[in-house]
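Morning F.,

Quick status update on the modeling queue. The single chain you submitted on Monday has been processed. Sequence for confirmation:
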Amino acid sequence: MPFFVLLPRGKAFVLCSGYFYRYMKVGLFIPCYVDALYPEAGLASYKLLKHLNVDVTYPMNQTCCGQPMANAGFENEAVPLARHFDDIFKGFDYVVAPSASCAAFVRLNYPRLLKKSGRCEASEKTTDICEFLHDVLKVKSLPGRFPHKVSIHNSCHGVRELGLSSPSELAVPRYNKIKDLLALVDGITVTEPERPDECCGFGGMFSIEEPDVSARMGEDKLARHIATGAEYVTGPDSSCLMHLQGVAKRLNKNIKFIHVVQILAAGL
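Structure tokens below.
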């Protein structure tokens, strides 16, 4: 028998047999590089949310969140994009993105960028999809099967800004929300590299401004992933995976890369 759970701001949704039904309205935000280079991660996000009976909408007039401009030192150029993002997503209960870095940028930086405008409604309810599945929906089962060994890439924004896993530099109990979700997938073997939350060297503008250092960091990180014996490297940020994939291709290393949501949505 369904029962009601109260959402923040007094709204409610119905929970029945572990699935969320209407009255929780979710806006799906697909970042630029996912849209342009890894659309399969965006499609997997939509399919998985629909499978979980989430009332999800993809606003067609969405665009960049402004992170590239702000990271390059041009914050004023990011403000109109932040305003536009807030306009199109403010009516949703949650905004979900298959990108830890973009979700973190919106949540942590929009309140400051939009301070002069006196409003910022979408920021606090923007989440990475792993965070949403683990903390909000509290998913306990997933439909697919992925009979492969994977190594988790814990990207910097996800670890230290969204708390997707515990930072190794802090004396806190160890946890990993990505690992928890992957454990629900049938047939998978999950591992993590030595130095599990060490940066891969991408860092957005860092890889452009310091290409030699970035490449060396990528080589070191890739070697640690390969040492696990994994067939795939997976994680919540296509940008980090793209960087490591480029390093692997240049070095002729036989390892594959896949966004974590594609594994979670396997079979849909």
